[in-house]
Amino acid sequence: MASFSQFGSDLYTGKRSYDIVGRRRTWYLIAIVAIVVSLVVPWLRGGYQLGIEFTGGSEFTISDVATTNQSIATDTVEKIVPEGIPRVSQLGQHGIRVQTAQLTDRQTTEVQDALAKAYDVPDSQVASTYIGATWGADVLAQAVRGLVIFLALAAIVMALYFRTWKMSVSAMVALLHDLLITAGVYGIVGLEVTPAAVIGFLTILGYSLYDTVVVFDKVRENTSQESHRTFKQSVNLAVNQTLVRSINTSVVALLPVAAILFIGSYVLGAGTLRDISLALFIGIIVGTYSTIFIASPMYAHLRENEPKIKQADAKKEQAAAKRQQQVDAAAGV
Question: Within 13 Å of residue 76, how many CA atoms lie on the same side as its CB?
């Protein structure tokens, strides 16, 4: 613990430093590759697997089953609705969930009775619900609208708070990076996108934005002070100074989220808990990366060619070169 504290102290004072901003091309390349994979692979797999809340359909929940063999449910449904492709998943240790396209009342009753017989449970332990496609489409539209409004408001507030649109643009690029990769993981693995997952997506955007604002506050503080460092060096120092804090915050946030994910998935079988915590778990990791390796380097990239900053950096580089010459001369080099 003491060595880690010393590590953080060295980063803060500049005694130890990692050239994060200077290697921005590497981070950009990693981000571009990750985004391309996140977009292409789900498309090759046939798109995202949207939950029944978005697409509409019928859902059956079988509780207290003696076996969680999912093929039993698949075969049972396909005998009654041959054209249907049921999606079957396990709920907790003693539950089965079956989702199909929207069925008629007669088909719903037949499937409900057949599932009760197949799993040897009373009819009362097979619950059925259905969601209309119109309602699902409305939910999806509302989710997209909420996302757009959130990003627009966040961009405006950041531009006003930091008094520069370039910080706002950098933060928004980092947020889009987080959203695309987190959603891409869902598409690549074939996880179901539910309203709970969408809530998780919006939550991680808020987390990532908070982390970015903290780093940008330090960037503004460093770049507004007179020092011998160039603009890029001042931004890099700010990233190093907040590096340990970002890591600690992420680890502390991941521990309870991982606990909720485990409990929701394997203990309680609560789909809502699982979907929200899974999105949070992926998003916190991706958001930490974007704050450190995308947002700050991009801000330095956007501003380093401004005439005023370019002129100031040139003077500082000349002064640094002169100081080095004096040191070399004193050492007899």
Answer: 26
97, 91 Cβ separation under 8 angstroms:
yes
Q: At 123, which helix (H) or strand (E)? A: none
8 Å CB contact between 266 and 189: no
Instruction: Work out the number of other CB atoms within 10 angstroms of the CB of residue 21.
Output: 26
Which residues fall within 8 angstroms of residue 265, CB to CB, at 6 or more apart? 273, 274
pLDDT in tens, 60-83: 888 888 887 888 888 888 888 877
Number of alpha carbons in the 13 Å side-chain half-sphere of residue 89:
16
4: phi then psi, degrees, rounded to nearest 5: -70, -40
Q: Please state the pTM of the whole predicted model.
A: 0.77
Dist. CA 304–CA 316, nearest whole Å: 13
Token output for 180: 């695309």
Beta-sheet pairing, 126-131 with 95-100: unpaired
Q: Which two tokens stand for residue 144?
A: 């997209």
The pLDDT, as a whole number, for residue 293 is 92
Residue 241 parent element (H or E)? helix 231-241
Residue 23 per-residue DSSP state: T
For the stretch 21-55, pLDDT in tens is 889 999 999 999 999 999 998 888 877 887 777 77
Structure tokens at 173: 């690029």
Q: Which helix (H) or strand (E) holds 309?
A: helix 307-331
